[in-house]
Write a structure and sequence with these properties.
The chain is built from 8 helices and 2 strands. By secondary structure, it is mainly alpha-helical. Helix 3 packs across helix 7, helix 6 packs antiparallel against helix 7 and helix 7 packs across helix 8. The radius of gyration is 23 Å and the shape is elongated. The two termini are about 30 Å apart.
């Protein structure tokens, strides 16, 4: 650990713990001033980016280089279904077929996917990612974004109530992780 210059240069006889506390307080004051100095939209963007980095570190850390071949999380039945759902939306849109109707389930009548836990919105949003990297990568990106967006939504609520940047960041983080 490197000792900060303000700690290393303290006067003899000064308690090191006091100097470290002063340095910490100085850093916290600078962070508070930085948070207050940003416009509202920039604070929201910083909050979202912090949550996105946290989601990537927490959920995708071990597989970040393998998002096309490994699942974020356990990869059990739900993840496989959502991979199919994102892939189905992509296939249906590229083949000009109704994405909310699957003719091959309960043949010959088919099945309306509107009554299932189907995610057509996620499939639409992830259409470019699915086109470039495949349905598994699209589902993994969707899961990472969902976690960060949930934290960000709570940050927005906390910030609206408190008008304080860092406590709102903490509230969003505690909710999402």
């Amino acid at each position: 650990m490197t000792i900060p210059p303000e700690v290393a240069a303290h006067e003899p006889g000064t308690d090191t713990a006091v100097v470290i506390d002063e340095a910490r307080d100085n850093l916290l004051d600078r962070l508070r001033a930085w948070g207050r100095g940003l416009p509202g939209w920039a604070r929201g963007l910083v909050a979202f980016l912090l949550y996105l980095v946290a989601a990537i570190v927490i959920w995708a850390g071990p597989i970040i280089t393998q998002l096309r071949v490994r699942y974020v999380g356990s990869g059990r039945t739900d993840a496989k279904f959502f991979q199919w759902a994102v892939g189905w939306v992509h296939w249906a849109l590229t083949h000009h077929v109704d994405p909310l109707y699957m003719p091959k389930i309960f043949t010959p009548d088919g099945m309306s996917l509107a009554w299932t836990t189907f995610i057509p919105g996620g499939g639409l949003v992830m259409f470019p990612v699915e086109s470039l990297f495949g349905s598994l990568a699209a589902v993994n990106v969707l899961l990472l974004l969902a976690s960060a967006l949930a934290c960000w939504a709570v940050y927005l609520v906390c910030h609206r109530l408190t008008h304080a940047f860092w406590p709102s960041i903490a509230g969003g983080y505690l909710f999402g992780y």
